[in-house]
Amino acid sequence: MLDVGGTPAEVGRVHGSTFAAEIREYTEERIGLVMSGLWTGVPVRRPMILELAEACLEAHERQSSVLYTEMSAMASGAGISMAEAVVVGGFTDFVDTVRAHLGEGTPAPVTVEDDCTAFIVPDHRAGGAGFLGQTWDMHASATDHVILMRTRPDDGPRALIFTTVGCLGQIGMNEHGVCVGITNLTASDGQLGVTWPTVVRHSLLAETAADARDVILDADLAGGHNYLVFDSEGTGFSIEAMPSARPVTTLSSETVVRTNHTLDEATRAVETERPADLQDSSHRRRLAAIDHLDRADLKQEDLMDLTRHGVCQVPSPPHEVETSGATVMRPRTRDFWAVWGLPSMNDYVPVEFL
Fold first, then answer.
1. pTM (two decimals)
2. Are 113 and 322 in contact (CB under 8 A)?
3. How far is CA 38 from the centre of its chain?
4. Mean pLDDT per segment of 10 residues, for the chain of length 354 residues?
5. Rounded Cα gap, residues 314 and 301, in angstroms
6. Helical H segments across 209-336, by residue range
7. CA 6 to chain centre
8. For residues 331 and 339, is the Cβ–Cβ distance under 8 A?
9. Taking every pair of C-alpha atoms in the chain, what is the biggest distance, in angstroms?
10. DSSP element (H, E) containing 25
11. How far is the C-alpha of 330 from the C-alpha of 335, rounded, in Å?
12. Rounded CA gap, 5 and 107, in Å?
């Protein structure tokens, strides 16, 4: 647990300096993955990668000068460049940007690294206090870099944030009871823009789910993700967010489950083809989660059980995707549970705001 407060610069500096060597190692792993061509279709040289990442910085600063300051301080503390910070934090959006800049005729990527399963359980299905939860599935090499942060900024809401070293934030809940989760989508319309960790953290500055939704809708996105937002009043949204299309589903009486394929015609039109086995996994996990959550009076143990058995992924060739951790959040009561690594092998821990 990284427990840090103060100004954005202080938060970023502590993050970067605490994990400096690990952030540098993880950065090189991420740049190497882009260079390999496994996520872009063809090998890419390091200078081009850093040039594109550098060109994305303006969008990050425009999105949130506060978070740009934090990212800059983190990069300085870790001894990496700001361009490298874009890659290590926002990898799965950034590869959409790289792919779009390789031109027509670029082969489809041969693998995809992010295969999360996320869900919102409405209040009435959970004894009056619903949940937002998800697994975070990634190449197994990422698991060692997973951390949990408790942020106590001088000017803004406190938050509990599931993330990896060098990344502003991936999943979280703030003290207002606004929760944000994500699943990766592969976009063919990637562009020079802001990557998803800045958007997640910016959303976690909001006081309501509607405000968090608007942050996502207004962002100049670099790539594709599905964002789930849910708050203490029981309001929730699912946004299939591509750079050029962002259909919104408002939470109703039905549980929402999202994995790694699009459901809306507008986003399907700009979705990059995924390997057949990963696409099959996305559909299977979504159906398994829908079936598991189709009951009344759900409790946190039911959702934890889903992440342990229904959608937990153990690495296997060729993709080596692993469930690197998971969270279950109940915004009405401000309850937050997290597990590091495979939920099927490790225990959830309750985490409190301080």
1. 0.96
2. no
3. 20
4. 94 97 96 87 93 98 98 98 97 93 65 78 97 91 93 94 97 98 95 98 98 98 98 98 98 96 96 85 94 95 95 80 93 98 96 86
5. 21
6. 209-218, 265-268, 276-292, 300-305
7. 24
8. no
9. 54
10. helix 20-36
11. 5
12. 45
